[in-house]
Amino acid sequence: MKQDYQQFRNLKFKELPAPLPAGERVIWQGKPSFKGLALRSFHIREVALYFGLLMMWKLWSTWSHGGSLGEALNSVVWLIIPAVSAIAVLAGLAWLFRRAACYTITTKRVLFQFGVALPMTMNIPLSKIANAALKTYRDGSGDIPLRVCDSKRVSYVLLWPHIRPWRLRTPEPMLRALPDAAIAAARLSEALTGQPGPAAVALSQSAGRSLVSDATANTPSTVAA
């Protein structure tokens, strides 16, 4: 137990709120990437595109109504400050949420540490994970949503952005924007099966497609779909 707890103290990520019980050990720990949170959770790209289109429309509108080029350029200057401010705020929020987050997979459970103003920890026993999926992106990052047996205990608002989007009725906690998603998925597969197997290999080698791991109530197993 002391060895496992010391393992957290040597990592650059957060340590667990308490030492692990005897017989439980950490097999993976990580946190979301800033780029993934900024683009897919806080939608900085869409906000930048919105302001870009708004500036283009303002330029065209002023020019089409007889304004000079200088007048057209002056008409969009007032949009620059709110555009930069909005992007800066979203980038700052993405940095804060990344800094506060940490995901941990042990031989017994998955832990979510989150909360910018009020740090919190959520434990999900492996026996409660009914389904896990892997979605990867072109840059190699990915998301791992978890469907738990008792989804009523999961708060969508409280856990956001570490939650699968738009699953409001049955919230699914999600290891989000992982830079090493394939490795994390393989470790989770090993934890669910209790040993490395074909499913773990498939998870670690997957890219750009969804893989599902189905678990029975007390004996989790993973199957690549």
If you had to describe this structure to a student in words, what would you say it looks like?
The protein is α+β, with helices and mostly antiparallel strands and 225 residues long. Helices cover 42% and strands 20% of the residues. The protein is built from seven helices and eight strands, in the order H-E-H-H-H-E-E-E-E-E-H-E-H-H-E. It has helices at 2-9, 34-41, 44-64, 69-100, 156-159, 181-193, 198-205; strands spanning 26-30, 102-106, 109-114, 120-125, 129-136, 142-148, 174-178, 211-214. A four-stranded antiparallel beta sheet has the order 1-2-3-4. A four-stranded antiparallel beta sheet has the order 7-6-5-8. Helix 2 packs across helix 4 and helix 6 packs antiparallel against helix 7. The protein is elongated. The protein starts with a helix and ends in an 11-residue tail after the last strand. The relative contact order is 0.14. Mean pLDDT is 78; it is low at 1-13 and 195-225.
Brief description of this entry?
This protein has 225 residues and is an alpha+beta fold. The chain has 7 helices and 8 strands, in the order αβαααβββββαβααβ. 32% of the residues are buried.
Low-confidence stretches: 1-13, 195-225
Which structural class matches the secondary elements?
alpha+beta
Computed Rg: 22 Å
Q: How many helical elements?
A: 7
Helix and strand element order: HEHHHEEEEEHEHHE
List keywords for this structure.
4-stranded antiparallel β-sheet, disordered N terminus, alpha+beta, 225 residues
